[in-house]
Fold:
Amino acid sequence: MPSHLKTVVVVGGGGAGAATARQLSSTLDPFKHKLVLITSRPHFIHLIGCIRASVTPEGRFDEQVVMPYDQLLVNGNGVILIAEVTAIANHGGMGGTVTLTDGEVVHWDVLVLAPGSRWEGPVAVPTTKEETKIWFAEWQAKFRRARDILIVGGGAVGIEFAGEIKDLDPKKKVTIVHSNERLLKKAYPDKFRDDIQQRLLARGVTLILGDVVPESALTSSTVVTRNGITLTPDLIVSLFAKISTIYEPTFTGNKIPCRGPHPNTGLLTAALGKKALTPAGHARIARTFQLVDHPRIFACGDIADLAEQRQIAKYEGHGAVVAKNVLSLLNGQPAREEYKGAHEVIIVTNGKGGGATYLGLMWGLTFGDRFTAKFKSRKLLVPLLRGNLGLDKE
Structure:
């Protein structure tokens, strides 16, 4: 392509990065602009489906969660580079560069950062499709062997793991230890959180609320909680501890890191300093998604500092705002489109056949098994995500 083209670089091919790149590909003029998406994997990983894929081979979700980028860019407008970014250079009004693992340096006039979160444990899948299939098979074997499973953390991920395990074998003992007096976060009404609790109890899941599993206990076959409750699991799944583990004392004697998600903003710190981030590690942004003090750099998705729950369903909205503002900058205009936020919505599965849903509309709407199963539990939003990537929904 001619060197006079203004280049937009999107870093990250997850939920926010893919949504932003697709919207940019439909609006940028290929005779004036060049779009480059840089992603570490040659395919999209549907994280919502990884919970079931790691527990059971049923439904072949180990294959369904791996989705190609073939149709992501509208009319092929742009290029996709499979690489990791090792450094970011910012030259102010002149744009900057990103350096890739192979040493290639890519210039940008506008940079969009959407690297998502860093995961460990079952959802921290490897890079290649072949490695991913083996990865899920190994995790399925762990869950199949375990008879007494302790889940540390009662957020949506922990709850959905419990439901999948009970689907796998209702006789398995499943215990959730959660630090708050109710499951989930305070962003959702107490009545809804209590309903989730009752649904798990009805399936035989043991709940220990208002208690904590000390990190030192995660490497022992006998776990004593902070409140003195003794547990003897043969599999510990710790999802949200600062330094957490998955431990199989009965089977392997090995501990495997499984920290909860953390914003993947290390490169941003190295390039722009700690002032670019909040104490929690999220990128400080304006309502336009521009980084504070760096108007030619945007940040969206998991890493953006927004007063909302971080969910892939919101990232189409992020992408739409970013795309409009990027185009304005390329045309010499200020970025004026502001993100208005989104209603809080959460759909929590309880296995394949049920769960509960909360929609933050009007007075707050809640739905049970039938609604939740139809919209998420059965297919785990796979058709929706495929459509968002430009693929056939089935």
Remarks:
- The longest strand covers residues 33-39.
